Amino acid sequence: MPVSYRISDRLLCLMAALALAGAVPAALAQQQETPKRQTQKPPAKPAPKPPQAAAKPGKNEPSKTEALPPSQIGIGTLAQFAFMIDPQTSTVLLFKDADKPMHPSSMAKMMTIYIVFEEMAAGRLKPDTRFRVSERAYKMQGSRMFAELNSEVSVEDLIKGMIVLSGNDACVVIAEGLAGTEESFAERMNKKAKELGMTGSVFKNASGWPADGQMTTARDLALLAWHTINDFPKLYPYYSITNWTYNNIKQDNRNRLLKITPGTDGLKTGHTEEGGYGQTTSAVRDGRRLILVVNGLTSMAERAQETSRLMEWGYRDFSNTTILRAGDTVVDAPVWLGAQPTVPLVVARSVQITSPTGQAPQPRLVARFDGPLPAPIVKGTKLGTAALTLPDGRVMEYPLEAGADVPRQGVVGRVASLVRHYLFGWLS
Question: Which pTM does this prediction carry?
C-alpha cells in the first residue's frame, strides 16, 4: 500500500527569514491546496455503477436467482425499488431504481419519528409529555394504536404507537401537538428532509397516508435511516421493540426481520395499494451495519422473505477490511524549527473498505499536507488528509492529525537550524 506526500520547497527560504525575526506566521502553515475536511458522513450519492464486481449467488441463494428482475448494481430482486449500503464505508451493494420516485407509505413515519427524537434530544420534549387525541386523529383509518378520543397520550407511548403499531392516529397526535396542524407539521418534515439531503422526498402528512404529490426514493429512506441511527443512538432502540400492548390490545411489530434475521434492530415497514409492500431495514453483525430499503413487493410474506434474503446476501458476499486503525501513523511529516525533526500524522478513526468476500483489497493511500510543518505543533491538530483510492476508482478522504506534541526549538536551536539550512540548503 504505497504512501506519498508533498512538500512545498519554496516555503523554506521565506520561513527561514521570518524565523530570524522570531516568528513563523500561522498563514504559512496553511496548505496551498486546502484538503477537503472529511468527517463520517451519511451515504453519499455515488454514480450508478457497481462499486465492485457483483458477487455471484452463494449456495444458499435460490437456484433461479439469475432469473429475478435485474438490478443496476448487485443481484436481482423481486422488489420494484431497492437500495442497500454499508454506511461505514459508503459502499453501495444493491441499487435498483433507487432514485426514482415511489410512494413512501408508512415508511414516511420515520421522518415524523426523527423529528420527535430531535425534540427529545434537545430537551424540548420528554417521554412523559402528553398530547391530546383530536377527532381527526381518532378517526384515522388503517393501522392504529387505538388511542381514545380526547385522551392524553404520553410521547413515549406515541413513539411506540408509531414504530411498533404503525399507528396513523399516533402520527396525527404528534403532528398536532408539535405544530398545531398536520399540514404545518408536513412543512417541517420537508424542511428537515432538505437539511438531511433527501432531495427526492416530498411529505404531505405525518403518517404516509396516500396523498397527491407525496413521494420519496429508496436512497432517501436509507439516508434517513442512517441519520436516525447515527444521530440518536440512545433513542434508536425503540425501533427494535417486537410487540406492544396499548388500550388492552396487543400488536406485533410488522418488521418480521426483528425475529427471523440475526442482528436486525430496525426500522419501518409500509404498504399502500399504489406502492405495494416496502420496508426499510437495518442490521448489525460483528460491528458491521447494513441498511436496506425495498418497495413495490406484492405481500407481507414476500416482503419478509425478500428482505431477509437480500440482507443475508449482503453479509455473506461482502466483508469489510480495516486498512488503518484509529491512531495508526500514515506518514512521519518533517517539522520546521521543531524540537523533533518529524511528527507522526495519524488517522483519528478506523479506515475500512468493503469488498467481495474472499478478495484481498489493494487500495492506494496518499498522505496530503504542505510541509515542512512549522512548530509548535499540538497533538490532535488537523494537518492534512489521507486519500484512499479504492479498486473501483472511488476516492475516500480522511483527516490526518498530529499524533504528538512538537514544541518549538529554543533560540539557539533555531539559529543552528537556519545556519545549517543556509549553508547546506542553498548548495544542495
Answer: 0.79
